[in-house]
Design a protein that fits this description.
heterotrimer; A mainly alpha (350); B alpha/beta (147); C alpha+beta (393); A: 350 residues; mainly alpha; 1% strand; B: 147 residues; alpha/beta; Rossmann fold; two-stranded antiparallel ribbon; 5 helices; 7 strands; binds iron/sulfur cluster; oxidoreductase (chain C); Ni-dep_hyd_lsu (chain C); metal-binding (chain C); NiFe-Hase_large (chain C); ComplexI_49kDa-like (chain C)
């Protein structure tokens, strides 16, 4: 019981701290690719958020301001739970430590982007005080749409086309292990109870133990699935090149346009926690190292969690925004690759 | 304490063109986007969303068409905020007012920026040099910390 | 408007503008979309209207020409040159050959910097921040050259009636600096263009989107590189006497899509460097300005010139004391954007924004046309613009 409570406190804390670093690392990697110095590591992820908490609280332009403001907080909690479900301490709450539960939570996140967008009415598009309708265009639109609503439509499409790769990839380990429980998945890769509470805190034994893991990632179906997971990860996060939902060139920032002050800080925190949670789930499922109360192991886990953001920031520095014209085929292609991984893993099991 | 450090460490700049000649606008965008000046290394980030901004950089005199949007955008920025008028157009309408044509000034060029919204930093130059723009924004930071 | 292809009803309108990262300058675009696909588009281009013609009325010509420079902060030299050229043509002022060469060098440097801004802007709208920044890095070198020659980064004020300003003469140091840097730049721009063209992700976005056919380009009088990318090969430089000593190609491409508009600019930059190199090689000796003229009454005088973004038309008259009367100016963006209104139909919304950016809009110079009728403002419709163009051209 005490472990459960401790884990519930410490692991989200570790997630937060890593989360603070992630945007900074991302920006820094991109900046180096762009041959400039770039912001300090903590500026985009930590100081910016803190600054927003110190700004004046204003009433957003939204039909439901309170609900609008509470959505990022929901997102943060949902993502913390997603991380917690993968920790050994929570496995005792049996039904929750499964892949299906995490998939359910990720669906909530996808929905949240839609909800955020539909409650926002930014000044930047329709409500800009500028007389443009009096000119007497031949064409008439029945309805004037805000940027946010446009991006909600896109989010809706992304839920249907963009999430296949991620979920397919998540089920490849399940097929290999023949269980949806995280406990079985990590045990399959060599993680056992001796990892959890060994004697001393600092011990080179850990390193050997980590090296002794047999990650699914290094098998052929695992490698395929890992690759597909990576692409699905970018799609779920709406990062370049799949950032059509918040494409800077037309909807500016997409759903989050109207967040100001602390709510904007909350929104950024939410993004950070999604970034962390997804990479954490990846490390757990494909490397076999769940976040545990064991501090050195937790540290290694958090460091491994930085790899995915670094990789995707390299990808995003070299890619333009895709429109749906490109997203459909790309998504289909990776879905097919996911299916291939699935079939290969089925063959491997049989 | 934490308030000041956090404000110092992350500043979002927003740019609004009220009607200069484009020279200053390009220079401000240049400061943010060109790796030679790289505004981000000074912890200043360019944004296009008033809800996120701390500093509003205004270039150009206020025109009849842009006065309303300017006011609205200024209101949309949450406190604390500072305004930087960039270029001699932003500072005193530059060449477009009081230049002595026979018909006088144009009706379209209304007024200086600081007659519409309070301006904290004036960055002169036609166009303002990138170094000056960085220095001007930096000069505004103490004001931002106080508020 | 009014073609059969255009319907008169759309489900939804997405207004974009006044403050938008893809536009940079304020203008208002109303995209009429069905789902994501643009069925029609209407642009309102007036927020920047400053009434420059009115400010210029009755101003001494030297002073007034400084204002022509401030029409646009990107192609400022071309505006000043064209204004000066109109006066010189009207008053029959003879310009020394060296001055013409220096003007050409400045104009081509400016073309380079304008095209690089274009590449940066287009790639930024594409969402490719890295390529945007690389273009800006390249541009900084040119800004340095412009700064070395003129002492300012944007408004160079090089031409003056009868020649060029003495401070802008190209001396030994400037000459060697220009030569060494341009040689490097030529390779770099070529590499950049290759990198853009060989990137399959970028090409998947820009290829085949925003197609402007040759007929449409001619119909809407899409000027400059925009028209040339659609196969309409007009380049006023071929007709200008200032350029007759130089050997360069007019880049004409056939597809008329966003890719061609990008590629046309990249190729033109390399041609521009070629022109500068030729000019530096054969820079004639002699005076750089001819001050022996007197300002007198001048009937209407006009001048066309090929600016980086298309054609600029200036016309003005002088009264007996040398004051400007009835200044008039037409800039390329007006027709270029009108053409883009058609070109973006049928594309995705995101591509539509790219198409808007791909004609290299420059609003600061465009917003000068507001008609006041019966005390009410009327904005030019497309028909008006077309008839104006017919009359003007
Ligand atoms: S100050 Fe000069 S460069 Fe800046 S907008 Fe005004 S005229 Fe243009």
């Amino acid at each position: 019981m005490i472990e459960l409570i401790l884990a519930t406190i410490i692991i989200p804390l570790a997630a937060l701290i890593t989360g603070f670093l992630i945007p900074g690392v991302e920006r820094k990697v991109q900046a180096r690719i762009q041959q400039r110095i770039g912001p300090p590591l903590l500026t985009p992820g930590f100081w910016a958020i803190l600054k927003f908490f110190y700004k004046e609280k204003i009433k957003p332009n939204s039909p439901m301001p309170r609900l609008f403001h509470s959505l990022p907080i929901i997102g943060i909690f949902v993502m913390f739970f997603a991380v917690l479900f993968t920790t050994p301490e929570w496995w005792s709450l049996n039904a929750l430590g499964t892949v299906v539960a995490v998939v359910g939570l990720l669906k909530v996140i996808e929905f949240l982007f839609m909800a955020i967008g539909s409650f926002s009415r930014s000044i930047l598009s329709v409500s800009m005080p500028y007389a443009d309708q009096i000119k007497g265009a031949v064409m008439k639109g029945d309805y004037r749409r805000f940027f946010e609503q446009q991006s909600v439509l896109r989010a809706f499409k992304m839920i249907t086309v963009g999430s296949f790769p991620l979920y397919l990839a998540m089920f490849v380990p399940v097929v290999l292990v023949k269980s949806i429980n995280f406990s079985d998945i990590v045990q399959f890769q060599g993680f056992d109870a001796s990892f959890i509470y060994p004697g001393g805190l600092i011990d080179l034994m850990y390193l050997e133990k980590i090296l002794s893991l047999k990650p699914i990632l290094f098998t052929f179906p695992g490698m395929l699935a890992g690759f597909v997971f990576f692409v699905g990860y970018i799609m779920l996060l709406n990062e370049y090149p799949f950032s059509i939902e918040k494409a800077k060139s037309d909807v500016i920032e997409g759903p989050s346009l109207e967040y100001a002050a602390w709510a904007r800080g909350g929104y950024y925190l939410m993004r950070e926690s999604i970034l962390f949670a997804l990479s954490s789930v990846f490390i757990t499922m494909f490397i076999g190292l769940p976040p545990t109360l064991n501090l050195p192991l937790l540290l290694v886990h958090c460091l491994l969690c930085l790899i995915m953001p670094i990789l995707f920031s390299i990808v995003s520095a070299f890619s333009p925004i895709f429109t749906f014209k490109q997203i459909y085929p790309v998504s289909m292609g990776f879905t097919a690759l996911g299916f291939l991984a699935m079939i290969v893993s089925l063959l491997a099991v049989m | 304490m934490l308030k000041k450090i956090s404000r110092k460490n992350a500043i979002h700049v927003m740019l609004f063109y009220t009607g200069g000649c484009n020279g200053c606008d390009i220079e401000v965008a240049n400061v943010a986007w060109s790796p030679r000046y790289d505004l981000e290394q000074y912890k200043v980030i360019l944004t296009w969303n008033p809800r996120e901004a701390d500093v509003l950089a205004v270039t150009g005199p206020v025109l009849r068409r842009t006065i309303e949007p300017l006011k609205k955008l200024y209101e949309a920025i949450p406190e604390p905020k500072i305004v930087a008028a960039v270029g001699s157009c932003g500072v005193r309408c530059g060449i477009f007012k009081d230049f002595g044509g026979e018909l006088g000034d144009s009706d379209e060029v209304l007024c200086r920026v600081d007659e519409v919204i309070p301006v904290d930093a004036y960055i002169p130059g036609c166009p303002a040099r990138p170094e000056d723009i960085i220095a001007g924004i930096a000069a505004g930071i103490p004001l931002l910390l106080e508020r | 408007m009014g073609e059969n292809a255009r319907k008169d009803k759309a489900e939804v309108e997405v207004p974009v503008g006044l403050l938008h990262p893809a536009m940079l300058e304020p203008y208002r675009a109303r995209f009429f979309v069905e789902d994501e696909v643009i069925v029609d588009c209407e642009l309102t281009l007036d927020p920047y209207h400053k009434g420059i013609e009115r400010i210029m009325e009755g101003m001494p010509v030297h002073k007034g020409l400084i204002i022509t420079e401030r029409i646009c902060g990107i192609c400022s030299h071309i505006h000043l040159w064209n204004g000066t050229r109109a006066v010189e043509r009207g008053l029959k002022i003879k310009v020394p050959e060296r001055a013409d060469y220096i003007r050409v060098i400045m104009a081509e440097l400016e073309r380079l910097h304008s095209h690089l801004i274009y590449l940066a802007h287009a790639t930024e709208v594409l969402g490719h921040e890295t390529m945007c920044m690389r273009a800006f890095t390249l541009r900084e070198d040119i800004m340095d050259l412009l700064y070395i020659i003129s002492g300012n980064r944007v408004h160079y004020a090089v031409p003056i009636l009868g020649g060029v300003r003495p401070r802008c003469d190209i001396d030994e140091y400037r000459l060697s600096e220009l030569e060494t840097r341009l040689a490097k730049l030529k390779i770099k721009i070529g590499d950049y263009a290759n990198r853009v063209v060989n990137d399959s992700m970028i090409m998947s976005r820009i290829k085949g989107s925003g197609v402007l056919t040759k007929e449409e380009a001619i119909k809407y009088a899409a000027p400059g590189p925009t028209g040339r990318a659609s196969g309409w090969g007009v380049d006023l430089r071929k007709k200008m006497k200032e350029y007759k000593n130089f050997d360069f190609n007019v880049i004409v491409l056939d597809d008329g899509d966003n890719k061609d508009r990008v590629v046309a600019r990249a190729l033109e930059s390399i041609e521009a460097i070629k022109i500068i190199e030729q000019a530096l090689e054969s820079l004639p000796e002699g005076p750089i300005s001819n001050r022996s003229f007197e300002l007198k009454e001048m009937k209407f005088s006009t001048s066309y010139i090929e600016a980086p973004r298309g054609e600029i038309y200036d016309s003005l008259a002088l009264d007996e004391t040398g004051r400007i009367r009835n200044y008039q100016n037409r800039t390329p963006t007006l027709t270029a954007l009108a053409a883009m209104e058609v070109a973006c139909i049928g594309d995705q919304l995101t591509d539509g924004m790219l198409t808007m950016a791909s004609c290299d809009p420059c609003l600061a110079c465009t917003n000068r046309a507001i008609v006041v009728e019966n005390g009410k403002e009327r904005i030019f419709t497309e028909e008006d613009v077309k008839s104006l163009i017919r009359r003007g051209l």
